[in-house]
Specification:
five-stranded parallel sheet; Arc Repressor Mutant, subunit A; 10 helices; alpha/beta; globular; single chain
């Protein structure tokens, strides 16, 4: 029996995952969480085999939660289940400690397959993500500029490219406007760009899928 914890800030989505799992007698939904902080609290109080973790959660996001779990609960298997396509966040999630990455909207059978593989000690990633991870270990590799951004910087970069204003991004990520503005300055500096239009052009040319 695989005990899973579902972490997503949308209750309706959690209900959908529960219905999928209910059709599989080997999987039991043993807990739910609506934020990263709630995840940390839940795993301290109870034991789970697999955590289904969303990236875009208020407060402590999925990637930051992953990093804390790596030291607090190193044996917990984490499967990231996100709205973001693999090319955008999968490599970052795996590096942060996830055992697999599945995009929302995939067939329910794929989700069950991913849960089963991760719970048995395997990893669930597609071939393109595996290839990126392999090449990323090459010491002399010249990285694309967006890969020099930290996880939080990349998250804000993606929201800027999608047309988000500083105040809107601050609300979505539960950050202050000043903090987001500071990140924006850092992003322009690392990307060696001076305008949002340049960021958008870069994202399109590099097929980031933002």
């Amino acid at each position: 029996m695989t005990r899973i914890l579902i972490a997503d800030d949308h209750e309706m989505f959690r209900e959908g995952i529960k219905r999928i799992c209910d059709d599989n007698p080997d999987i039991i939904v043993a807990g739910e969480a609506g934020s990263g902080y709630e995840v940390l609290d839940k795993v301290e109080k109870d034991d789970y085999d697999v955590l289904l973790l969303d990236i875009a959660m208020p407060g402590l996001n999925g990637l930051d939660t992953l990093k804390q779990l790596k030291s607090r609960k190193p044996g917990l298997r984490v499967l990231v289940l996100s709205m973001y396509p693999e090319d955008e966040y999968a490599v970052r999630a795996i590096k942060a400690g996830a055992a697999g990455y599945v995009t929302k909207g995939r067939a329910s059978r794929e989700l069950i397959e991913a849960i089963q593989k991760v719970s048995s000690g395997g990893n669930y990633i597609n071939a393109s993500v595996a290839e990126k991870l392999l090449f990323d270990t090459t010491p002399d590799r010249t990285k694309p500029r967006h890969e020099t951004l930290s996880d939080r910087e990349y998250q804000i970069f993606s929201l800027i490219v999608k047309g988000g204003k500083v105040s809107e991004i601050a609300d979505e990520l539960s950050l202050s406007v000043k903090t987001v503005s500071t990140y924006k300055v850092r992003i322009f500096g690392k990307m060696e760009m001076k305008s949002t239009a340049e960021l958008v052009k870069y994202a399109v040319e590099n097929e980031l899928g933002l």
